[in-house]
Automatic annotation (TrEMBL):
<keyword id="KW-0963">Cytoplasm</keyword>
<dbReference type="InterPro" id="IPR036584">
    <property type="entry name" value="FliS_sf"/>
</dbReference>
<keyword id="KW-1005">Bacterial flagellum biogenesis</keyword>
<keyword id="KW-0969">Cilium</keyword>
<keyword id="KW-0282">Flagellum</keyword>
<protein>
    <recommendedName>
        <fullName>Flagellar secretion chaperone FliS</fullName>
    </recommendedName>
</protein>
<dbReference type="GO" id="GO:0071973">
    <property type="term" value="P:bacterial-type flagellum-dependent cell motility"/>
</dbReference>
<dbReference type="GO" id="GO:0044780">
    <property type="term" value="P:bacterial-type flagellum assembly"/>
</dbReference>
<dbReference type="Pfam" id="PF02561">
    <property type="entry name" value="FliS"/>
</dbReference>
<keyword id="KW-0143">Chaperone</keyword>
<dbReference type="GO" id="GO:0005829">
    <property type="term" value="C:cytosol"/>
</dbReference>
<keyword id="KW-0966">Cell projection</keyword>
<dbReference type="InterPro" id="IPR003713">
    <property type="entry name" value="FliS"/>
</dbReference>
<comment type="similarity">
    <text>Belongs to the FliS family.</text>
</comment>
């Protein structure tokens, strides 16, 4: 019962943050979601929870492909947007391989790459 209430509170909290976020903050939330999913996948690998790992990695790939990539404006963004598009594609591919092979190293690489970009986004806000 407590877990259900806690999950409901987290969902409402997330929905509130999303509804009040600027476009810049939404991108930061996407990064945070992908990073958290990768961390969770790593924990699931350690615990041998294959279903949990697969779900977490799928969530990270979905955020990268349908969230972060969809925010790119390849026409106006020029070389930076093109490079990010290629990087996001690479990260998605590495996440898929990490899922197939339970590869903690690939997960860490993806985490580090996304975290570096996320840190830049966070700095922009300052």
């Amino acid at each position: 019962m407590y877990k259900m209430g806690s999950h409901a509170y987290e969902q409402v909290n997330l929905e509130t943050r999303i509804s009040q976020a600027s476009p810049h903050q939404l991108i930061v939330l996407l990064f945070d979601g992908a990073l958290n999913a990768i961390k969770l996948a790593s924990l699931y690998i350690q615990k041998g929870n294959i279903v949990g790992k697969g779900n977490a990695i799928s969530k990270a790939i979905n955020i990268v492909d349908n969230g972060l990539k969809s925010c790119l404006d390849l026409e106006k963004g020029g070389e930076i947007a093109e490079n990010l598009d290629r990087l996001y594609h690479y990260i998605s591919q590495q996440l898929l391989l990490a899922n197939l092979h339970n590869d903690q190293e690939k997960l860490q690489t993806c985490f580090d790459l996304l975290n570096n970009i996320a840190e830049s986004w966070r700095e922009i806000a300052k």
